[in-house]
Q: What sequence folds into this?
């Protein structure tokens, strides 16, 4: 794998390779380049996941012609598929090297932060939604209890926008969650359930179930389960599987003419 | 095109969450939580997620200001530090060292806090040192 990356960098097949490097004991995302080829020997893989494709979008937003290589797990692969379909990255400019993630008899080791989920505490189990239950279990509660349990979860939200900022397939220039007509500024708790359901609706047909939103959530809201439930509807009604199907989502309202224009990096 | 990821510590409060800055072409373009950091374990509040915005903010103060005739005016660091030391000296001479207090911060490092209290005790000569977390 390291030889392959070195070869790509030397031959100019990729300008920047996104992988991980150990820095002060922390596996951090790292930009490997031709000028510092020796660093490729320090490339590491492990269970820690960062949205590498989100970094790739930022690079492509600065220079649409840049050739990017990156390590991909299954979730990264699905995210890339979605980003290609939505014209956020150009498939001609992206090269990927698959890395081991999901458990299998054929793989030496399974490597994913999702494999060791945090166990819900007894209070959360009693009044909220355990992040690790299945869709069926979540639908098992009667309606009143479901509303009460989900309201408890949404109530905890501190409106950090981490779910959106960590999401590899969230790329809109204008975000509905920042629209003052939909979400009031300065208020906590947020409008329940509008805030979370607006995001859930936008995740329909787009969420690739990587679980990074949940990992980023300081309040442990079961976001992955919520988006899974939304996507199950998309699958049942439209027979659409985001990240796997090679056509655009049935909710595509942008049309085909979307360009790789630089996003408002300077607007901040 | 060049870029790098820089690990750092959030400068907003005293918690000390680990953050990663994304630098593209020498410009700070994004912030991410540091997943393996023992303090925040991959989570951040809204201020932490937007650290890169205040660094690039057009309203960011880039040089010291001296208030003259009721208005703030831009000054060089040398000028501002001299102005501050002259005024402090004058006040200490006239009213004594206990007329000065030093407020330190949760947002700066232990070492900087140590220096600030040393400055208060050794240079000014007062025990009036307090901390923003007690306000």
A:
């Amino acid at each position: 794998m390291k030889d392959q990356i070195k070869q790509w960098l030397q031959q100019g097949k990729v300008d920047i390779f996104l992988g991980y490097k150990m820095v002060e004991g922390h596996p951090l995302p790292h930009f490997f380049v031709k000028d510092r080829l020796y660093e490729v020997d320090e490339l590491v893989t492990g269970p820690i996941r960062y949205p590498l494709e989100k970094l790739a979008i930022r690079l492509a937003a600065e220079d649409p012609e840049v050739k990017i290589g990156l390590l991909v797990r299954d979730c990264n692969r699905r995210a890339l598929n979605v980003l290609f379909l939505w014209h956020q990255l150009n498939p001609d400019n992206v090269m990927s090297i698959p890395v081991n993630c999901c458990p299998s008899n054929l793989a030496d080791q399974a490597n994913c932060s999702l494999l060791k989920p945090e166990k819900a505490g007894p209070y959360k189990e009693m009044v909220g939604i355990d992040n690790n239950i299945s869709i069926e279990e979540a639908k098992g509660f009667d309606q009143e209890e479901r509303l009460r349990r989900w309201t408890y979860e949404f109530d905890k939200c501190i409106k950090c926008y981490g779910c959106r900022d960590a999401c590899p397939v969230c790329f809109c220039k204008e975000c509905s969650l920042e629209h003052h007509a939909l979400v009031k500024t300065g208020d906590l708790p947020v409008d329940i359930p509008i805030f979370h359901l607006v995001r859930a609706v936008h995740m329909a047909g787009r969420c690739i179930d990587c679980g990074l939103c949940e990992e980023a959530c300081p309040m442990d809201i079961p976001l992955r389960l919520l988006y899974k439930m939304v996507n199950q509807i998309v699958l049942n009604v439209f027979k659409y599987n985001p990240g796997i199907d090679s056509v655009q989502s049935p909710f595509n309202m942008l049309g085909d003419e979307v360009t790789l224009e630089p996003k408002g990096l300077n607007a901040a | 095109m060049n870029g790098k990821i820089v690990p750092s510590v959030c400068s907003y409060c005293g918690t000390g969450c680990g953050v990663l800055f994304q630098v593209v072409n020498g410009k700070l373009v994004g912030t991410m939580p540091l997943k393996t950091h023992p303090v925040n374990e991959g989570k951040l509040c809204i201020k932490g997620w937007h650290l890169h915005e205040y660094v690039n903010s057009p309203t960011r103060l880039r040089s010291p200001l001296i208030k003259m005739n009721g208005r703030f005016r831009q000054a060089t660091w040398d000028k501002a530090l001299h102005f501050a030391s002259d005024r402090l000296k004058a006040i200490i001479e006239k009213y004594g060292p206990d007329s000065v207090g030093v407020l330190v911060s949760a947002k700066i490092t232990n070492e900087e806090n140590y220096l600030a209290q040393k400055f208060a005790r050794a240079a000014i000569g007062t025990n009036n040192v307090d901390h923003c977390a007690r306000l």
Summary: Helices of chain B lie at 46-49, 51-55, 77-95, 110-124.
